[in-house]
Write a structure and sequence with these properties.
single chain, alpha/beta, 2 domains, 5 strands, 9% strand
């Protein structure tokens, strides 16, 4: 396996390999360059480092990426370059929440849209035979019990079909923050194909359009 060296990007992000990529055909430098070309520089302001490797949190929380203390922590096990780019953009969304949380959430438009969808999902799941307390659906914050209900009791394959047209993917209903992050990921992963996101989550899409234009926030 070829040793990949740590590097800095042109915008000053430090990319550090805690562990080498399992699949060394994944060109991390190319992927990070794509990240910087897709996401406006202003929205990358909270991202100081990208650390590639394996972390205990991955096993503890059944995840493969997270944002913490100015760094994107990204798994070194990836299917391809789009897979790791998706993870980087998704975790960048959580960094953006720190910088622009007031702008994103203060007017409650995304929250209201999210909870309407959660309520609809509750009825859809109930009709499909998957039952959980309604109060879990009305809490926008992350809840481990609810997360496990969706992941294990329902399963993402079934959930994807049940919530088709309600949420953009089966992970979006997990919490309000993940609703934002999945929309953010879709917005920047598919910059020329926003029709589905705009139709499915109009309030979220409008907010993403606004933060994409940093001047609309500053003025």
């Amino acid at each position: 396996m070829e040793q990949v060296n740590n590097f800095y990007t042109s915008t000053g992000i430090h990319v550090y390999f805690k562990d080498q990529m399992i699949d060394d055909s994944v060109d991390v430098e190319k992927v990070v360059s794509r990240l910087e070309s897709l996401v406006p520089t202003q929205l990358l302001g909270e991202v100081e480092m990208i650390i590639i490797g394996h972390f205990e949190e991955f096993d503890e929380r059944n995840i493969n990426a997270f944002y913490k203390d100015g760094a994107l922590h990204i798994s070194n096990v990836q299917m391809d370059e789009n897979d790791i780019l998706d993870d980087m953009i998704h975790e960048t969304a959580h960094a953006v929440e720190i910088a622009y949380g007031q702008e994103i959430y203060a007017d409650s438009k995304i929250k209201d849209e999210f909870l309407r969808k959660r309520s609809h999902m509750y009825n859809l799941l109930w009709s499909a035979g998957f039952k959980a307390p309604e109060k879990l659906f009305m809490d926008p914050e992350y809840d481990y019990e609810f997360d496990q209900f969706l992941l294990k009791d329902v399963g993402y394959d079934k959930l994807s079909k049940i919530v088709s047209g309600v949420f953009i993917n089966p992970y979006a209903p997990t919490s309000l923050r993940e609703y934002f992050a999945t929309g953010f990921t879709e917005f920047y992963m598919n910059p020329n194909e926003h029709g589905f996101l705009k139709t499915t989550s109009p309030a979220l899409y409008a907010k993403l359009e606004k933060i994409n234009n940093i001047e609309s926030i500053d003025n």
